[in-house]
Design goal:
This protein is mainly alpha-helical. Helix content is 36%, strand content 6%. A hairpin with a 5-residue loop joins strand 1 and strand 2. The longest helix has 17 residues.
Length: 72
């Protein structure tokens, strides 16, 4: 099991947010699966991505797609 530092997780958070913004995922209607973005290894941190959604850092749709509110 890999152990990640907080700086590694902060970088991953930044990459996820930037990838969603670049993909135009700005609302539930335009949400994207991480595999639909240019994010490298999109499924590598699935649990962390879901935690970001649980903390309302990013949005998550019922079908498992993600988006970033442009107002945040």
């Amino acid at each position: 099991m890999a152990v990640f530092t907080s700086s590694a997780l902060s970088l991953r958070k930044k990459l996820i947010i930037e990838a969603l913004q670049k993909a135009g995922a700005q609302s539930p209607k335009s949400a994207k699966a991480l595999s639909e973005t240019d994010l490298e290894n999109p499924d590598q941190f699935q649990e962390y991505t879901d935690q970001l959604a649980d903390m309302d850092v990013i949005g998550k749709t019922p079908d498992g797609k993600y988006y970033v509110d442009p107002e945040d």
